[in-house]
């Protein structure tokens, strides 16, 4: 499988116990052409303080030495970051990115009003529509506050857990109900040359489509968006590059020909 998986966690993330070395060995075994580590940095994460802090120095040293040891012309290892966005953290994030070298930065919204839609309390007193609309409007608010990112992570993240909370029928996203809130986000990233991430971590949650859904990816294409990144959001070796072949076929069906891999924060096109 000649793909590049650009969203992957290791024991540097608060929610993964897999040493980065094991992720590398498994990715190589599966024949990938490369991987990019994107461990979590979610500062001021109120649901579980310091769970997603990241030791940036140790991360840098460890990944650099693994690159030396394992990287070959046919298997590239990159060092990225999944940055948890929050409007109040813009200045801190700016300073972190200016002091550290990353190949790739995914901007993700995991926290809304200090709650993570991963946990049920986010949905208290909200209809599915309210829960989802609040999420998308916060994504826009976050991007307006800070958008020095390369790709926007799992845009409909809230649906991944909303489906679990409300049940498959009630929690299913109706694109038409939410199209306005989603389109302004798509418009924003297109205008600012930020890629849209297609995240296949959704399949672990019994979803049959990536995050965001094909309908959203299709709308992005109709609006002129052509910059996609591809990641399985694996937290262990089992789900590296999960469902990539199937998803790539669907993306080609929508009209995409390529996806992007960022090196030193510059996009390099690869065929789907
Ligand atoms: Zn995430
Ligand atoms: Zn992730």
How do the helices and strands line up, and which of them pair or pack?
Layout: E1 4-5, H1 20-29, E2 34-41, H2 56-70, E3 76-84, H3 90-99, E4 104-108, H4 128-145, E5 151-152, H5 157-166, H6 175-191, E6 195-199, H7 214-222, E7 228-231, H8 244-254, E8 258-263, E9 266-271
Parallel strand pairs: 1-2, 2-3, 3-4, 4-5, 5-6, 6-7
Antiparallel strand pairs: 8-9
Residues 82, 108, 110, 153-154 line the site of one zinc ion.
Ligands, ions, cofactors: zinc ion
Q: Judging from the principal axes of the Cα atoms, what is the shape?
A: globular
What is the percent of helical residues?
25-40%
CATH C-level class is: Alpha Beta
What is the C-alpha radius of gyration, as a whole number of Å? 17 Å
Report low-confidence residues grouped into runs of 5 or more: none
Tally of DSSP helical segments: 8
Structural class: alpha/beta
CATH fold category name: TIM Barrel
Task: Explain what you see.
It is a single chain. The protein is an alpha/beta fold and 272 residues long. The chain has one domain (4-271): Alpha-Beta Barrel (TIM Barrel). The protein contains eight helices and nine strands. The protein has a seven-stranded parallel beta sheet, covered by helices on one side. The model has no long low-confidence stretch (mean pLDDT 96). The structure holds zinc ion (2 copies). Residues 7, 9, 82, 233 line the site of one zinc ion.
């Amino acid at each position: 499988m000649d793909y590049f998986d650009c969203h992957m966690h290791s024991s540097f993330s608060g929610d993964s116990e897999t040493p980065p070395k094991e992720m590398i060995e498994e990715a190589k075994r599966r024949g990938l052409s490369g991987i990019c580590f994107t461990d979590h940095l979610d500062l001021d994460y109120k649901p579980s303080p310091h769970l997603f802090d990241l030791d940036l120095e140790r991360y840098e040293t460890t990944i650099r030495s693994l690159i030396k040891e394992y990287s070959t012309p046919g298997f590239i290892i990159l060092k990225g970051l999944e940055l948890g966005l929050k409007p109040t953290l813009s200045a801190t994030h700016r300073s972190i990115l200016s002091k550290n070298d990353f190949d790739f930065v995914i901007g993700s919204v995991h926290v809304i009003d200090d709650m993570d839609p991963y946990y049920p309390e986010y949905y208290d007193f909200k209809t599915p529509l309210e829960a989802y609309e609040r999420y998308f409007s916060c994504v826009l608010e976050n991007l307006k506050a800070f958008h020095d990112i390369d790709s926007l992570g799992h845009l409909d993240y809230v649906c991944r857990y909303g489906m679990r909370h409300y049940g498959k029928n009630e929690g299913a996203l109706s694109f038409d109900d939410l199209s306005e809130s989603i389109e302004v986000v798509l418009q924003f990233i297109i205008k600012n040359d930020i890629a849209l991430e297609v995240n296949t971590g959704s399949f672990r949650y019994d979803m049959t489509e990536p995050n965001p859904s094909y309908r959203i990816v299709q709308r992005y294409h109709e609006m002129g968006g052509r910059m996609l990144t591809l990641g399985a959001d694996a937290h262990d070796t089992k789900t590296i590059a999960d469902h990539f072949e199937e998803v790539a076929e669907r993306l080609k069906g929508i009209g995409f020909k390529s996806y992007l891999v960022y090196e030193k924060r510059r996009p390099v096109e690869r065929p789907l």
